[in-house]
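Hi, here's the filled form for the chain we discussed.

Project: internal
Contact: R.S.
Residues: 345
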Amino acid sequence: MSANSPAMQSVGDKSYEEVRRGWNAAHVRPLWESTVAHRANEGGPKAHLWQWSQLRGFIDEAMKVTTPAAVERRVLSLIEPESTNPASGTTTNLSAALQVLLPGESARPHRHTMNAIRFVIEGKGAQTIVDGKPCLMEEGDLVITPGWTWHEHVHKGTGPIVWMDALDAPLHRYLGTDMFEPGPAHDVPDYADDAAYAVPNILPEGGAELSFSPVFRYPWAQAAAAVEAAPKGRDGARRVRYVNPTNGGSAMPLMDCYLMQIDRTETIPFRTTSNAVCHVVEGNGTSRIGNETISWGPKDIISLPHGNWMTHRAETDKAILFLVTDRDTLKRLDLLREQYGNDPR
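And the returned structure, exactly as it came back:
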């Protein structure tokens, strides 16, 4: 309702405008003038496509203009196009970016409360060292750096390596829980070797259950084999989840990672209150997200904001998509709502 609405009455000898100016001066605002009051949900924010054909050129430019020694991390952030906030992420609760290392370069250690993932897009031979544990980085590998774990990057291979970073940084900034500490590392925990968790359904006796996965690297070959063998889900896509082997939950609290394989049959419409960033690992296809139809190809990155009906279809025999989401956050808060077609869940 506008300030000039005839429904707004004067108060004694004061007009509504005078009353309103007094409220504003005291930092009080009437809810009935808010544009978000009692607004019906009519769909989510728009999705956006970042094409690899353009991003790869930006990466070449970034390699020439600076070094990790000068700027801590050589990172290009992907920003939600319609946001006016300079600290905005890629979509609600999630920030995605591209990080680049050249042979011989390193990015010094630090830690922060934000959870982060690294999904390798191009190159090999680098390592992310997480709480003292070296994690090899090759194309398609997922490396996690849970909140408050020390991490650094070193590249001893040949040729550039590029990976997608994704963090729950916007959520932490909103909550005021975004903390950061530079290295050198100290008080580093001692973890069991990854081989201790290598056999399905068997765990080392006496090992403590952690809130995040003690296995920081998920190799591509294993993930690709798993999604190929997975049965089709309700929407028609094959999907596997990267999990914490000590409890079967998400690899890190608040963030969830999935690998999804689709074929030439369009998936059943699906929508969710969670948000995701999608990286196309292989194949070509199209996605209908809200009112948008997006055609994508290998190494493209797409935001999948909450509240949109979406479908996916491969234009090749199959396509594989990696998704990082805030689904675990919404589930913990009992705010996760999902629908397939007309079936609310």
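Let me know if anything looks off before we file it.
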